[in-house]
Structure formats: structure tokens, C-alpha cells
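input
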Amino acid sequence: MADLGTLPDSPRDLGWSLRVAIHAMDFFAMKGTFDPKCVGKSASEGGLSPLMVSNFLDHLSSLHGETVWDDTRHVIRLIGKMATEGWLEYQGNPINTPLMGNAYWASGFHATTAQSTGVLYLSSLLGPELIIRSYGPSAIPITGKNKLGDVAVGTGFALDERHILTNAHVVEGMDLDEEFETSAVPHLGWSDRDVELSGRGSVKPWHVRVVDVRASDDGEAPDVAVIEIEPGPEGHGLIAPHGAVFRDPEWADRVLTFGYPPVPTSKTAALVVHHGEVVNPAVPTFHGPAFLYSAVTRPGNSGGPIVASDGRIVGIVAHDVRDEGRTDEAPYYRAIPANVVLGELKNLGLGHLATVEDWKY
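output
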């Protein structure tokens, strides 16, 4: 039997999809608009070469020094999806050859200035896997002992190589371990507009040392804290996703939560990702401004990032809200919205660690 990886219909991984999408945006943009009325005319007559799928496959082959025709079906599907979702504009089929003769034009770069340092602007095209591979390595289990001496865990998010964002109640409610173990999710390498996965499945976590904790001593302050770290014995800092930006939640948002709720029988803290929706983007509470979402949240999720389907962070997990007199009702899952998180980071003198989405190109 042929190896699965050699079969034309075998799945292509996220790294492949990212590279093809980025190359497609570049290729169909750099040649200029294809005008069907100009087919057959020379350049001096105002003609333009039709930019077809077949031309793009030749282009990919020239980049990699080998044929990519085994990827034809996958390239066609991805380009079709890009056209359906507005990343490419269909310009006709000048040679009347189904699919391979389809010509496209990329109307522009779809990353805002805030997101332009990474690939998260492609989240709406490539879906949850891109978000998970981008944010998963940045979600850190915050471990220690609670006041009873039992093992406790919360969740944090790497803002850069040395700072972890989390809830104040997470760091105030436990004696933190001197070292944290990082995530086991493979991360995306990003260099010169090319993308690679660091591995498939899981990677070996490393350790980082706790240096300092910053949280307001004002009892009315938002439930936000920052842990400063330094590289541990392996010599590596944290991994923060390129192009990660904050914006406030909206009614229509579908979201993913990242966290480390204790999993029975598991040997180590395991990252859990839940899908859900924003069910109310702005709810005034006795704990301060909040929003509600539907993704299941358990103890241990506190402080974890909440990421919308466009790849932007809309808040962090907070205490859930329940009627203490009723044990038969599910709680409301509450979060601290991005603007509150950003405001508290500024109060802590760390506003420079977060980027706000301003929608500028």
C-alpha cells in the first residue's frame, strides 16, 4: 500500500495551507488585474497575461524546484475557498478549461497594521486550527499550592518572551511554583513570509522561572495580573504569537478558550480548547465590566485568553457567575473584556506589551 503522505487526496497540513495561501495572495496581486477583454492582445496593445490556476501551479513549482501537480486538487480547493470568502476575485476562464483555467486577482493585503507581523489575519480563511496553533504554545499553566497545601492550577497567556497575563485571583490564591512548564502544542515558525510547524503532535515543554508578579493592591481593580519570568534551565523564554492583537467582544463573535482545567488521571497539566459564542458582549457586574460566553469553563481556566474567529483576543476568562442557592443550574461564563485588560496593563506600567486593533492599514 502506498504511503498515506504520497496519495493525492491525503490531507495537507496547516503549514502547507498557510504557504499556499500567502503565495496565492502575492502571485495574483503582483501581476496586475486580468481583463478578459484583453485576452489575445499583446502587451503593446494593452493586453495582460491571464493569471490562472495553472500559472499558479507552475509558479509554486518554480519556487520549490519540484513539481507540485500532486497538490492540484488541494490548491484548487483552497483557491476556490479564497475566492468564495473574498480574498481573491474571479476574473473569468480565458482558455475554457474547467478549474485549471480559472483566473483570479487579489485586490489587496488583508492584514491590518496591527496583525501584519504574523499570519493570524488568515484566521477567518483557515479556521480554528490556525488559531490553536498560534495561541496554544502561548497558553501557560500557572501552577502552585493553594492555601490548604493542595496542588492548584490556573492559566496564563504569553504577552512576550518574559511576561504572562493572567487573573489576579490566580496568583493571589496560591503559592506559585518557582518554575512553570510551557505548552506542549507545536508552534508556528515565522520567517520571511514563510511558515513552518515546529513538529506534529506535541513538542517537549521546557521550563521558565518566576521572577516577579504585578497586580494592583486596590480591591476594586480589575482581576488582572502579570507574571514576569526568565528562561529556565533549557534557556528558552516564552512564545507569544506574532500579530496577536486585542479588541472588544461583539454579539456575533464565535470564540475559543484556552486553559488548563485539571483532567482526571492525567499526569501533567493538559491544554484544553473549547469553542463557543459571545452571548452578551457587555454586562455590568459587581465585579466590574464583563461579557458572557457559552464555551464550557472549569476551575483552572481562569486567566486564559478568549480568542475570536478572526484571530483577535477579546478578553480573558474570569470567575464564572452562578446562583449559590441553586445547584441544578449551569453557571454563566464570565470574561474580562479587552479594554479592561488593556487599561489595567497600563496601570501596571505594562501597556507596551499589548497591541490594540485600530483597523489601520
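quick obs: The helical segments are 14-30, 53-64, 72-84, 123-126, 128-135, 168-172, 338-347.
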